[in-house]
C-alpha cells in the first residue's frame, strides 16, 4: 500500500504516537499535539489569502489537522490561519528568500506555498505548485541552511518527517539507556 492509500487520520495518528514517544524519552522535545481539522470556510479563507487553490493533498491534511505547533522537531505545520498571513508565514518567506540565494536548483519562489516552518533554525518546507504531480499531489521542497530535498508530494514529505521523528526516538533511547 502506497502512502497515498493510507488515510490522513492514520498518518496523523502515527505521527502523534511517535511525537508522544519523543516527548517521553527526551526533555528537549516537549509534547505537542495537532489542532482540530479545518472546515470549508477556513480552507476558503486560506486560499483567498494566497490567491489560488491549495494542493489537494495539502488541503486533505489541513482538513485532518489545521496545523501542528512544533510537530516535527522545531517545525510547525502551518494551519489555515497561518497560510498567507502572520509571523510564521513571514518567517517562511525569509527562509525561502535566504535559501534561494544558496540553492540554484530551487523552483521560482512564486511557485511555492510554505507548509511547515521552524521558528528556531532555517528550515522550511513548501509545496511546489507547478511541479510534476505524483499520486494527485505536487512536490514538496524542504530547504535548510545546508541543503534542500524534494519529495514527490505532501504524503511523501509527511512520511519522511515521521521517519525522522522515529530515528530521533531511537537515538534518544539508545543514548539515554531508556527501556520503552
From TrEMBL:
Superkingdom assignment: Bacteria
Classification via InterPro entries: Knr4/Smi1-like_sf
Name by which UniProt lists this protein: SMI1/KNR4 family protein SUKH-1
Amino acid at each position: 500500500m502506497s502512502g497515498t492509500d493510507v488515510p490522513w487520520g492514520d498518518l496523523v495518528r502515527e505521527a502523534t504516537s511517535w511525537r508522544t514517544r519523543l516527548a517521553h524519552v527526551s526533555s528537549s522535545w516537549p509534547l505537542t499535539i495537532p489542532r482540530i481539522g479545518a472546515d470549508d470556510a477556513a480552507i476558503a479563507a486560506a486560499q483567498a489569502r494566497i490567491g489560488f487553490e491549495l494542493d489537494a493533498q495539502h488541503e486533505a491534511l489541513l482538513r485532518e489537522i489545521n496545523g501542528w505547533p512544533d510537530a516535527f522537531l522545531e517545525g510547525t505545520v502551518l494551519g489555515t490561519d497561518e497560510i498567507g498571513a502572520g509571523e510564521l508565514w513571514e518567517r517562511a518567506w525569509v527562509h525561502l528568500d535566504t535559501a534561494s540565494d544558496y540553492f540554484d536548483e530551487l523552483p521560482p519562489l512564486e511557485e511555492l506555498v510554505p507548509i511547515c516552518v521552524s521558528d528556531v533554525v532555517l528550515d522550511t518546507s513548501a509545496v511546489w505548485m507547478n511541479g510534476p504531480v505524483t499520486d494527485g499531489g505536487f512536490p514538496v521542497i524542504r530547504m535548510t541552511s545546508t541543503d534542500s530535498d524534494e519529495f514527490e508530494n505532501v504524503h511523501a514529505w509527511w512520511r519522511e518527517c515521521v521517519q525522522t521523528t522515529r530515528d530521533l526516538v531511537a537515538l534518544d533511547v539508545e543514548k539515554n539507556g531508556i527501556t520503552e
